[in-house]
Protein 1
Amino acid sequence: MTRTKPLLLSGVVSAALAAGLLYAPGAEAANWFELQGISPAKAPLFGVSGFIEPTIWVQPGTEDGLLHEVPHINLVGPDFSQGTTAGILRARIMFRGNLNPNISYFVAGEFGNNGYTHVRSGYQPGLIDGHVTFSYIPGARVEVGLIRAPSSEGAMQGFMTYNYVISSTVINQLMNQPMLNSAYISKDSPAGYLIPGTEKLGVNGYRYPGAMIFDWFRSGPWEFTYGAMVGMYGTVAAGNQSNEPMEAVRLQEAYILGGKGPFRSDIQGGIWYQHAVPRFDGANYDMNRYGADLQYLQGYMHPWGRQFRFEYMRGNGWIDAPAAFNKADLKQAALYQTQLYPGIGNKAWGYMVEGGLFLTKNIEVNLRYDYYNRLPNNPAQNRIFKTYALGLQYHFTPLTKVMAGYYFRTLDVPHPNATSESVASAVDNVFALQAMIAF
């Protein structure tokens, strides 16, 4: 088998890439398994890179009409104390290189203020990537460590291809699960488990400790890629919480139109599946996620360059619902604590469709529609989130840009009560501005 030559450093990139050296003569195009798994064949033993994302959120912070409190959805995470704020959403430093031609390593720390670093209601920087990849076996590269698990294309993207400040609701809620203290002895509520903020261990950033086998195969413009992982469901950020098994697999086929790296021109489709058995309150629960996606990308940073993405996903078992409010002095605990529905009969599904167009080499406009139907099996808890997002980007380099987005949000409650109807009617639209600066 003839291997393709890796071009970029990963969804997080090398100093040479950050300096603008996107393409190497003769190198073949890459995909996310390649970018996030291995270093270029000629990469040095040690390299440093990173990025920061200063961000501004502006929303009215409208109170609901019944309790006269600002709903959780109208406040900015991860602490949900304000509706309008500024901060560093992500700040990452990365180290990677080749120990020899067949062994690559990658380690990254996250220092921004986001769900990954918000552990037990406090700020805690953490290791967000840390793995070694062995490329000795033709057709089966082996990656071991803290790995971005194969799943939806949107969950596998690197930072340089983010087109919006606010992530897709369906991808974020179904795939970027909040980790919970598995030893917490909770009290059952009529709706499920109620989880206080002190028992939430942050989100996992789509990453799990484990081992993955992956590779890609080229035949002319066609490229087939697979990735299969076994690991532990949980988080390394809060200690020994990686407690139960998980499996994940993704298969994808691409027709390459040209270009290299994460901005190559292609038509790509993928299918994926994840299964985990998280443990909580002394019991194990099945959690399934699966979906399909399609994308078309052509002409990145070229006038009339364009993109189209579609993702569909479903989940059953282990569906969580963030708290409606943030204040602990409300009378009903269900209003200010996360609700967890772990049984296999609980369901959620949704989709995301997105388009983008470069008006000039530097200016790109984007449009996204996001739909998430949470717990349709439970009429009292069923919620439907719909968001239209308008985006405008100015690209200084392929890795450094400014993004502005306006998000038209609605929350539908098919079977409302007085409180849920009041919260739904108060949901704000959001304006967000972010700079993405690579070094």
Protein 2
Amino acid sequence: MEKITNQQIIADLQSQFGETAIYGIGESHGILQVTVGTDTIVPLIHYLYQHSAFKFQFLTDLAGIHFPDAKGQELGVIYHLHSLENNVRIWIKAYAPIENPVFPTITGLYATANWMEREAFDFYGIIFEGHPNLKRILNMDEMDYFPMRKEYPVEDATRHDKIDELFGR
């Protein structure tokens, strides 16, 4: 069996969804990376899952990200899919404005997305529309902020018990 290449996947996806729907194409350490709009996520992932040759039927990870300087695309989700049969991986990225961080859920295809989406909601405030039980998973329900967003300082500036030399500063 011939190994599937990233170029074959790109060509197939662009012929299926169009070159404007699949953009931001890149590669890191041999892993294909594509960017799509939030409306393309579910159809694309379903297509990759059901494809007769690609068979991306394993969700390795789903992670939230925050880029406060990217106006209109501050919050994002990265989907890590793996084709175990072909030993090929792909990252799918999508972004939304911080004022409306809504992404469709993929729990209908990958049951493991349930906890991953809840974690992204808990830490970044990303809302997964259609999720069966979208609530905090690790933080207290009373929290009114999302701690992994970069709008919060990493360290407590009021502490004076740290010696900067010990922290490489």
Protein 3
Amino acid sequence: MTASRNKAGYVRYFFVFFLLVVSQTYAQRRSDLERQKSRINRRIKEASAILKETESQKRISMGQLTALNRKVEAHGELVAFLRKEMRVLSGEIESKQQVIVALENDLQNLKQEYAGMVYSTQKSAGRNQRLAFLFSAESFRDFFIRVDYLKQYAEARNKQIEAISAVKQDLEGQRMEVKQTLEEKTVLFAKEEQERKSLVALRLKQKGLLQKLSRKEKDLKKDLKKYKRDKNKLERLIAEVVRKEVARAKKAKVSKKNATVAVVGKDFSGLRKRLPWPVKSGFLSSRFGKHPHPVLKNIVVRNQGVDIQTSGDEEVRSVHSGVVKSIAMVPGAMKNVVIIQHGDYFTVYAKLKEVRVKSGDRVNGNQTIGVVSTDKTGKSEVQFQVWNNQKNLNPEDWLRRR
């Protein structure tokens, strides 16, 4: 009986340990999910605010479409995420129910053992005739053995009662947790259904806006042609500034006088995926490289950097310490341009309506260098580029994840 009781105890302790491991695992997973959901909700909030700004102009535009596309994308991520979260909750409920079944079996075994102990005591004591059982001893030694025997059984029964009580508490706690998790899942399901309907409405709105813009194909092509001319002006400016600085750096290496001069921002090369964004809020409205035009068919656009659509009057910041090498005005879409050198690297900030630094200034990371411009359609956007000497790089490889 003692071996059986110990075995039941081991079973109980095993499942208590298993319960703790399961709870901690799911608690960590749910904590990770909450952080991910927070990031998605932040992106939705940013896209909604920017979309509202473009819609306030009472005219359809590419800026409005990119903001709406971003909101649709973020809402799609949220719906998929909520479904994933429900799957996690379902797994958590299933695991807890398995623990409940195991604890119920453990409780049944404990009760059966306790019943056997009571029966054995009654049998040994002559149907509860404990006094008769004691005083029927043939000697004092036998009497004390019988007293000790009854005492041990009393202690064992008390421990068994405590074990039964503890398992009952565990069961009740697990049942309450399952009930709470089921309620959370019900709320989550309603939220997912609501977001799914919102996503359907957003996609219909997106389709309608796309159709309206498609009917303005002639104007869009005209705007695109002008934008390409403005970008070419910017590219020529960057190429000239970088060429001069590379030549100057080569000359400086030959000069002993300049050989020990400290280079501001020379640690730039080790900052991949760690650079802050040049604006506090916003999203990528045009990615690096070649990609299809979002409206015009069979038209490919090329971007030497990334465009970040943001809110009006948003401050533009240097992504790292460096030296301002050029400030220029490029007529048209690019507006004011700031080029900052970081050792062998350069960062470019275009589409600024206002500049707050001057050529030759040393700047720190996150220092404000200007304010983003807003076009006639209400779109506020900054063009950001990264160069390694004369090699054009993808800024997405350098900016930290948002």
Protein 4
Amino acid sequence: MSYLLKKKTYCNIDNTCLPKHVAIIMDGNGRWASKQRKTKINGYKKGSKVAFSIIECCVKLAIPYLTLYAFSMENWQRPQSETNELFNLLYSFLTDKNQISSMCDLNIKLNFIGNINLLPHSVIQEIKKVEELTSINNGLLLTIAVSYGAKQEIINAISVIIQNNINDISENEFEKFLYTKDLPQLDLLIRTGGEKRLSNFLLWQAAYAELYFCNTLWPNFSCKHLIKALQEYTVRERKYGR
């Protein structure tokens, strides 16, 4: 993080133009592991360390909302041994007192979205605990999308609307039924790993978000790469169809 303290690098960004809400598709963990001749779980472990570094970077840059795509609905199709390892890794994070303490020291509030009920019971319990523990924090709102699918999110919202016999609804009202109801509009969506698609992530929310794709695999992603994405965002003109 030391380079953030170098005035030249830091001041290249116009803080008044920074996005309020950034989302990241953290892609490339498996390919990184393969290149390193390591197992996939090693790639995810390295990726989780990178995630915390990026979270710290967002705190330093005073970005108020960060959403990370950790596990999609489609990821359930992976071998059970792999999903078990992923949830063991998530459980280890949630029960790591040092990690959670660091989050609190950074004034971070944790928020999980997705079909959480599909997760192992032990993970669900720990999610509830850390959400409660960090609920008093008012700094960065860190949202982690787990067991999340945007199509499923929209269908779920429609189902709730039908159940409540709501016949007339606006876009603003509809958004109150989404998992992201407590989040502002998405400004910037970053995808690492070289792929150029949304992969069922925040489809409604990304309607007018700026998209930034980079070839860097997630375990190699750094605050320097994030700053580059933010710099490009600040020079784009957002017209919203006008």
